[in-house]
Amino acid sequence: MTLTICLIEGDGVGKEVIPAAARVLSALGLPLAFTAAEAGWECFLKYGDALPPATLEAVRAADATLFGATQSPLSKVEGYRSPVLTLRKRFDLYANLRPTRSLPIEGTYQGVDLLIVRENTEGLYSGRERREDDGQTAITERVITAAATERIARTAFQCAMRRPRRTVTVVHKANVLKEGDGLFREVCLRVAADFPQVTVNELLVDACAMWLVRDPTRFDVIVTENLFGDILSDEAAGLVGGLGVAPSANVGAGRVAYFEPVHGSAPDIVGRGIANPIGAILSAALLLDHLGAAEAARRVERAVESAVRDGVRTPDLGGSANTSELTDAILRRL
Ligand code: NAI
Ligand code: MG
């Protein structure tokens, strides 16, 4: 049976790394068919819509979607909404899975294998923001519900069950945010009771940020709310080579899922052909896992590790290879 993958390059270096990841997917000898769709800032300028109906339809119709990156304006633009936030909402992709694994690169942490399970639909990203009439006070509401916490906690514990260390760290700030994070913590610990084989512990988010830098190898699965997960996962990426190598998955209860590098459009390096394709390629590996092609996913990961070990690295990793040279090296090792 042929599986359909929707490719959305988006903006900036998304146009450089998604074609690289598509080359890797095409080289695996799997029955894959590709469709393409548009989204992002350029798409908004062209059609007045950052996520047109045709793109939503292509995402719905595909077995999985590989997304590059988008560029978002820093201030409010009438009619513009972040396409990734819209996708997450529209298809209720409530779990953002962000694995961090060491690569064989000198000067980066070795032995790291952690997974941040980030709640993807609420918290401070619920869109409940307003500016008071005087324009001098802005209020952003942070929404935490028991229902959304329960499902993300279940996802985290289920992930932990499939990993050797079977440990979940619940990360929160319940000492200060007694209502929101109090509820998040309470529900996570309640769900933990359904997984007696999993070791559960908890950590305040600021301490977690510190421990990630001191010793990231101590973490297995981290479950946390939206903003904390966003920040901690970029931090975690920084420990093993940076944003250029970090993949992510956005999944929910339904069939729709999309996979994307954690990085954005990288305006400072766009157009130079030096973007690191590894974040996108490892996202493609997560996509393969999701579609049940675990063996192909491991092949991709091993090829990435081998290329990096042999010193084929883009400038963000201290090397001089460009995007296509690193991709070629990965393809040769498949
Ligand atoms: P960014 O991730 O685009 O760049 C941060 C730093 O990482 C830059 O120095 C960049 O050169 C480097 N970098 C990123 N990807 C790289 C790659 N593949 N290879 C080598 N180096 C890489 O984040 P920034 O600069 O904060 O945001 C730029 C734009 O991207 C903004 O408009 C932002 O809204 C958007 N963005 C979009 C995301 C998404 O599509 N999911 C996620 C994060 C930011
Ligand atoms: Mg981020």
List key phrases describing it.
334 residues; alpha/beta; Isopropylmalate Dehydrogenase; 10-stranded mixed β-sheet; 12 strands; globular; binds 1,4-dihydronicotinamide adenine dinucleotide; binds magnesium ion
Q: Secondary-structure map with pairings?
A:
Elements: E1 3-10, H1 14-26, E2 32-37, H2 41-47, H3 53-61, E3 64-69, H4 83-90, E4 95-101, E5 113-119, E6 129-131, E7 138-140, H5 146-161, E8 167-172, H6 180-192, E9 199-204, H7 205-214, E10 221-224, H8 226-239, E11 247-251, E12 257-261, H9 278-290, H10 294-309, H11 323-332
Helix pairs in contact: 1-9, 1-11, 5-6, 7-8, 9-10, 10-11
Bound molecules: 1,4-dihydronicotinamide adenine dinucleotide and magnesium ion.
Protein model, in words:
The mean pLDDT is 97. α1 packs across α9, α5 (146-161) crosses α6 and α9 (278-290) runs antiparallel to α10 (294-309). This protein is globular. It has 11 helices and 12 strands. By secondary structure, it is an alpha/beta fold. The strands form 2 sheets. The chain has a 10-stranded mixed beta sheet with strand order 2-1-3-12-11-4-5-10-8-9, sandwiched between helices. It folds into 2 domains: 1-93 and 246-334, Isopropylmalate Dehydrogenase (3-Layer(aba) Sandwich), CATH 3.40.718.10; 109-239, Isopropylmalate Dehydrogenase, CATH 3.40.718.10. Bound molecules: 1,4-dihydronicotinamide adenine dinucleotide and magnesium ion (MG).
